[in-house]
Design goal:
Elements lengths: L8 E6 L6 H13 L4 E4 L11 H11 L4 E4 L2 E2 L5 H14 L6 E4 L4 H6 L7 H19 L7 E4 L4 E5 L11 E3 L4 H10 L2 E2 L13 H14 L8 E6 L3 E2 L8 E2 L1 H15 L1 E6 L4 H26 L1
Parallel strand pairs: 1-2, 1-13, 2-3, 4-5, 5-8, 8-9, 9-10, 10-13, 11-12
Antiparallel strand pairs: 6-7
Helix pairs in contact: 1-9, 3-5, 5-6, 6-7, 8-9
GO molecular function: oxidoreductase activity, acting on paired donors, with incorporation or reduction of molecular oxygen
Protein name: LLM class flavin-dependent oxidoreductase
InterPro entries: F420-G6PD/mer, Luciferase-like_dom, Luciferase-like_sf
Length: 302
């Protein structure tokens, strides 16, 4: 069993469809009112049918009160890291400390290139992402004096001013699936944010992938528990009988999520589907039951 001991988070993954803009924002408000912790949107700037994610995050932050927001995940090749750092800090300040940074090395390279981005190989993307994360954190760090100078292979800044400082310590959650990206996650990230549908063997893959993150964290001199494990679940359904992972009655959802938390160390559960009724029940009924069950199991160990 691998329980990293993090507090549990529950959230939604909303499709940023431009033709349903009002419903998109309403779903974020529904998640906020349902007591969920996170609302997230995919970031594919080359997708013409989607709202721009950075604009949507700002608008949704203004329409909500307590829920935290993140891109799931930011496409770094189309959002230069120094500018992304300032945008993230600005949104965090304006929202009262409610922004989290999900980030990825990039995918769909034809689309990225079509939008003027640089086409990279998988290995190059990993290096570029590491450089981007380092620049972002340098821009945020106003505890030291002096400008930011960074000469990387893919990203450079020369004499950039530091700040603004975010309203809270924004965690960096990396979308990762392959060994090199998992190693980067363990070495430098604050969280791992994949979708379970894209794991090679679904939930059965988690122990192996966790081990790769943990090993990289150890090699970097970090506690593996410093890396929160989050998970997207895109194909969810509430139904009368269990039919699979997060496809069944609420009690089955609770049992499955508790198992993922205590046996696999997943501590953030983000559901897709764009169904307001599921969002409401997830926040009002399922999340509290999971928290109670996990706390009950953790208490004897403490």
């Amino acid at each position: 069993m691998t329980d990293y001991g993090h507090d549990l988070l529950f959230g939604t993954f909303i499709t940023p469809a431009a033709q349903r803009a009002r419903q998109v924002v309403d779903l974020a408000v529904t998640a906020d009112r349902a007591g969920l912790d996170l609302v997230s949107f995919q970031d594919h700037p080359y997708q013409a049918s989607f709202l721009d994610t950075s604009t949507l995050l700002a608008f949704a932050a203004a329409r909500t009160e307590r829920i935290h927001l993140n891109a799931n995940v930011t496409s770094l090749p189309l959002r230069p890291p120094a500018v992304l750092a300032r945008a993230a800090a600005s949104l965090d300040i304006l929202s009262g400390g409610r922004f989290e940074l999900g980030i990825g090395a990039g995918a769909f390279w034809d689309g990225i290139a079509a939008m003027g981005g640089r086409r990279l190989s998988a290995a190059q993307g990993v290096t570029a992402l590491r450089e981007g994360i380092e620049i972002i954190r340098e821009i945020w760090d106003t505890t030291i004096s002096g400008e930011v100078n960074y000469d990387g292979q893919y990203y450079s800044v020369n004499g950039a001013r530091r700040g603004p400082r975010p309203a809270h310590d924004i965690p960096v959650w990396v979308g990762a699936y392959k060994p090199k990206m998992l190693a980067l996650t363990g070495a430098v990230a604050d969280g791992w944010l994949p979708s379970i549908e894209y794991l090679p063997r679904g939930a059965d893959s988690i122990p192996e992938l966790n081990a790769l993150i943990d090993g990289a964290a150890h090699d970097a001199g970090r506690d593996p528990a410093a890396v929160r494990r989050l998970m997207n679940f895109m194909n969810v359904q509430l139904s009368s009988a269990p039919r699979g992972l997060l496809n069944g009655p609420p009690a089955a959802w609770v049992d499955q999520i508790v198992d993922l938390a205590l046996r696999h160390g997943i501590s953030a559960f983000i559901i897709g589907g764009d169904d307001p009724s599921i969002t409401q029940r997830f926040g009002a009924e399922i999340a509290p039951a999971v928290r109670e069950a996990v706390e009950r199991e953790r208490t004897p160990a403490r």
